[in-house]
Automatic annotation (TrEMBL), chain A:
The keyword Oxidoreductase applies. It comes from the Bacteria. The lineage of its organism: Bacteria, Pseudomonadati, Pseudomonadota, Alphaproteobacteria, Rhodobacterales. Keywords: FAD, Flavoprotein, Oxidoreductase. Pfam families: FAD_binding_5. Gene3D superfamilies: 3.30.465.10, CO dehydrogenase flavoprotein, C-terminal domain, Uridine Diphospho-n-acetylenolpyruvylglucosamine Reductase, domain 2. One of its GO terms (molecular function) is FAD binding. SUPFAM superfamilies: CO dehydrogenase flavoprotein C-terminal domain-like (SSF55447), FAD-binding/transporter-associated domain-like (SSF56176). Residues 1-169 form the FAD-binding PCMH-type domain. This is Xanthine dehydrogenase family protein subunit M. PANTHER family: XANTHINE DEHYDROGENASE SUBUNIT C-RELATED.
From TrEMBL, chain B:
The keyword Oxidoreductase applies. One of its GO terms (molecular function) is oxidoreductase activity. This is (2Fe-2S)-binding protein. Keywords: 2Fe-2S, Iron, Iron-sulfur, Metal-binding, Oxidoreductase. Gene3D superfamilies: 3.10.20.30, [2Fe-2S]-binding domain. Residues 2-78 form the 2Fe-2S ferredoxin-type domain. It comes from the Bacteria. InterPro entries: 2Fe-2S-bd, 2Fe-2S-bd_dom_sf, 2Fe-2S_ferredoxin-like_sf, 2Fe-2S_ferredoxin-type, Beta-grasp_dom_sf, Diverse_Oxidoreductases.
Length: 264, 156
């Protein structure tokens, strides 16, 4: 790994100041960033570790919403009593990310900042109509994800939390890549105040996306069989060594059914 | 350079190391605790798993500088005069062949047993296989590793 300077700011204000240089990057769990640096695909001059900034991790319920600090680990989300009570499907998603050691380090903020097209969390954030809270604003999920590895975040912008209004019910099902455990296809369904929302990860060439046809069918009837009549096009889906677009299109329907069946 | 203080296997240590030093390098090269193995160095294989503040992590995917003040347990710190029940179980059940993956397997095994016990959940064979998702073994075919962890879980 190239040389890098490590910083551990004590406050968000200090972190912002340290991120003023273009070559500085936020470090959270490091489960994506450190492997990327080892491969020389990223070479930041400075790493600004946000994990120990007060208020950056932990879960609370505020005004009926679940507020999850950006530096909360996947293991903490999976085991948190408030998450299990209000959005059990999210706890279930977190429990299925990678492996135990990755879940002990990786964070929700890091996952959605990275917006890997095969990551699990983006589907939850989008389906649950969550709000991404940063050091300077609040961003609606529909505006946040902007294509593979691309988000609405500005240079130096720090995610501080994610806010979720508990849905009436939600469910997540993924077909994990047998080697990496990332999603070949993952589908999150949620009955929200704004209707049924369905988000698909792992499949799209432009990263996570909502599926209109599935949303319409499941709004009419929230049952696994409602998925049968929906056509899922392979256009715009990924084809790679793991599976072609037609296979992924098929998996979208299968995972959607399983997600509805699991919804709680 | 970062000055790092840690408690490693019960002993206080302090070293000045470059900021880009991984925990695996800190343990192996600076503390000469070479029981922690580096199999892939790409976060996949789990040979490098150690416990940091009681949780299993991949030491090749953490900066030592970020763990200043942490309490670390490596494979060298498990035995307490006698072998740890997990070590003994791997020995009893032929849970290793070449032994390269074994430090990580054992550290992951101890972590999963402790977590399941704390949560009052039963560590079934299926659960053990699922929990071993991040530990790769090139030799054994896993069956005897699973058996070893089952035996140790009953004894721990
Ligand atoms: C073996 C393995 C298996 C995995 N399997 C899965 C899987 O099945 N599903 C899945 O979804 N993921 C998987 N991951 C990825 C894992 O979930 C990562 O933890 C996650 O993608 C990144 O989170 P992090 O906290 O580690 O972030 P880091 O690696 O520290 O950072 C990632 C990126 O986000 C930025 N960033 C981090 N925090 C913030 C913040 N608060 N504000 C702004 N920017 C920020 C960083 O600058 C960096 O660009 C896996 C990883 C590994 C190593
Ligand atoms: S050496 Fe760390 S996971 Fe393989
Ligand atoms: S015993 Fe050889 S790699 Fe597992």
């Amino acid at each position: 790994m190239y040389d890098v300077s490590y910083h551990r700011p004590a406050s968000l204000a200090d972190a912002k100041a340290m991120l003023a240089s273009d070559d500085a990057k936020v470090l959270a769990g490091g489960q994506t960033l450190l492997p990327t640096m080892k491969q020389h695909l990223a070479a930041p001059s400075d790493l600004v570790d946000v994990r120990r900034i007060p208020g950056m991790s932990g879960v609370k319920v505020e005004g009926g919403k679940l507020v999850i600090g950006a530096a909360t680990t996947h293991a903490e989300v999976a085991g948190n009593a408030d998450v299990l009570k209000h959005v059990p499907s999210l706890a279930c998603l977190a429990a299925g990310i990678g492996d135990p050691a990755v879940r002990h380090m990786g964070t929700i903020g890091g996952s959605i900042a990275n917006n890997d097209p095969a990551a699990d969390y983006p589907s939850a954030i989008l389906a649950l109509n969550a709000t991404v809270v940063t050091d300077r604003r609040e961003i609606a999920a529909d505006d946040y994800f902007q294509g593979m590895f691309t988000t609405a975040l500005e240079p130096g912008e720090i995610i501080t939390a994610v806010k979720i209004t508990p849905p009436k019910s939600g469910g997540y099902a993924k077909f994990p890549n047998p080697a990496s455990r990332y999603a070949m296809v993952g589908v999150y369904v949620a009955q929200t105040g704004a209707g049924v929302r369905v988000a698909v990860t792992g499949a799209g060439q432009d990263g996570v996306f909502r599926h209109d046809g599935l949303e319409a069918a499941l709004s009419a009837r929230f049952a696994p069989e409602a998925v049968d009549g929906v056509s899922v096009s392979a256009d715009g889906l990924l084809s790679d060594i793991h599976g072609d677009a037609a296979y992924r299109a098929h998996l979208v329907k299968v995972m959607a059914k399983r997600a509805v069946a699991a919804a709680a | 350079m970062a000055t790092i203080s840690m408690t490693v296997n019960g002993k206080a240590v302090k070293r000045a190391v470059p900021d880009n030093t991984l925990l695996s390098e800190f343990l192996r090269e600076h503390l000469r605790l070479t029981g922690t193995h580096v199999g892939c160095d790409t976060s996949q294989c789990g040979a490098c798993v150690v416990h940091v503040d009681g949780r299993a992590i991949k030491s090749c995917t953490a900066l030592a500088a970020s763990l200043d003040g942490a309490t670390v347990t490596t494979i060298e710190g498990l035995a307490n005069g006698d072998l740890h029940p997990m070590q003994k179980a791997f020995n009893d059940n032929h849970g290793l062949q070449c032994g390269f993956c074994t430090p990580g397997m054992i550290m992951s095994g101890v972590d999963m047993v402790a977590r399941y016990k704390a949560e009052g959940r039963e560590l079934t064979e299926a659960a053990i296989r699922h929990e071993l998702e991040g530990n790769i073994c090139r030799c054994t075919g896993y069956h005897n590793i699973v058996k070893s962890i089952q035996q140790a879980a009953a004894e721990m």
